[in-house]
Amino acid sequence: MLTHRILKLIKKYKYFTKEELMLALGMNKSMIDAIINELLQLGYISKIDKGLYRYESHNDLSQLNEFLSKLNTRIHFSSLYFYTVSSTQLIARDLSENNCPEGTIVIAEIQTKGRGRHNRSWFSPMGGIWMTIILRPNFPPSIIPLMNLIVGLAVAKAINNEYNVQALVKWPNDVIINDKKVCGILIECSLKGNLIDYLLVGIGINANNSIPPGIDGISLKDVLGKPILRIPLIMNLCKILDHYYSLLVDRNAHELPRVLNELKLLSHTLGKEVLIVLDSGKHIRGKATDITLSGNLVIFINGKRLEVAYHEVKKLTYL
C-alpha cells in the first residue's frame, strides 16, 4: 500500500497522529490504520505514545548521504537514492562507465529486477537494503574471489556487531543466519587492459522486508522480532568494508592471512559435506575443509584434495 507520496509526507513530520495523516491524505480511518501498521512493520516510524508516532530518520535511505558524510574512512562514500529501480547494479554500471567516483553507493527502496549470480532473480521489496557500491581497485580480476569473501565477512561482522546475532558466511557469496540466507552478494567488474577499471559490489540484505513462502531466506526483522534501523547497519558495514578493502589495495600481504582466519571463524561452509555443481555441469561431492588466500574452497574427496574456484561454481548445497 505504501507509495513514494506517503513516504515523502511522513518525512515532513517529526511527530504525527493518525488524524493528521487522515487529513493530509484524505483517507478514512481503516485505510490509515493499514498504512500506519505497514509503516511500523517496515521501521519507517515508531510509536512513542498513545496515538502519537515518530518518523525514524535512521531508517530513511534518502537521508543516507547526511550520515555518510560524517564517516572517517579512506573510501569517500556517498549515496544516490532511488525509490524504485530495475536494478542498482545496472544503474551503478552506467555511472561507472561515466567516471563516477569510487565509493558511490546506489541504493533503492525497491528493485523490480534484482538479481544474483547467474542472473538468478532476487526478491527486493520495500524494507530491505538493496545497494551497489562502486570501487576502483587497480588490480587484476584474480582479486575478485577474495574480494567477494571480504564483502561477505564485512556484512556478517556488521550484522553481528549491530544485533549480537550469529551471521555466518556461506562460500562463495551469501550471508546466513539460522541456516537461512539474510544477504546475497554479487560482484561484477569491467576491465581496462589487464586491470580492473571498476568493481560493482552488489549487496542485498533482508532487513525489514517479509520473506514470502517458497523463498529460502530470513530477514533481520524476523530474527530480532522487531524492525531494524537500516542506516546504522549500512554505516557499520561501510566502516568494516573500508578497513578490509584498504588492506587489500595497500597490498598488506602480511595482514591477509589474519583476515582469512577471521573469515574461517565465521564460515558457514567449512566442515560440512557439500555438493557443488560446476558451470560445466560436473558434480563434486566432498567435505569443505579450507579456504585459500585466492578465495578457493578446498574440498576433500576420498582423501584427495581439490580446490574449487569461485567462478567455476553454479551452485553449492549441503548434504
CATH class type of the largest domain: Alpha Beta
Unreliable segments of 5+ consecutive residues: none
The assigned CATH architecture of the largest domain is: 2-Layer Sandwich
Number of domains: 3
Q: Kindly report how far apart the N and C termini lie.
A: 41 Å
The shape, in one word, is globular
Q: Name the strands of the widest sheet in spatial order.
A: 4-5-6-10-9-8-7
**Oligomer designation:** single chain
Mean pLDDT over the full residue set: 92
Which fold name is given in CATH as the topology of the largest domain?
A: BirA Bifunctional Protein, domain 2
CA radius of gyration is 21 Å
Number of helices: 9
CATH evolutionary superfamily of the largest domain: Bira Bifunctional Protein, Domain 2
Our estimate of the beta-strand percent is 25-35%
Which structural category do the helix and sheet elements fall into? alpha+beta
Number of strands: 15
SSE run: HEHHEEHEHEEHEEEEHHHEEEEE
Q: Biggest sheet, in brief?
A: 7 strands, mixed
Helix content: 25-40%
Brief account:
The chain is of the alpha+beta class. The chain is 31% helix and 30% strand.
How would you characterize this protein structure?
The protein is an alpha+beta fold and about 325 residues long. It folds into three domains: about 50 residues, Winged helix-like DNA-binding domain superfamily/Winged helix DNA-binding domain (Arc Repressor Mutant, subunit A), CATH 1.10.10.10; about 200 residues, BirA Bifunctional Protein, domain 2; about 50 residues, Roll (SH3 type barrels), CATH 2.30.30.100. It contains nine helices and 15 strands. Strand 4, helix 5 and strand 5 form a beta-alpha-beta unit. Helix 2 crosses helix 3 and helix 6 runs antiparallel to helix 8. It is globular and about 70 Å long.
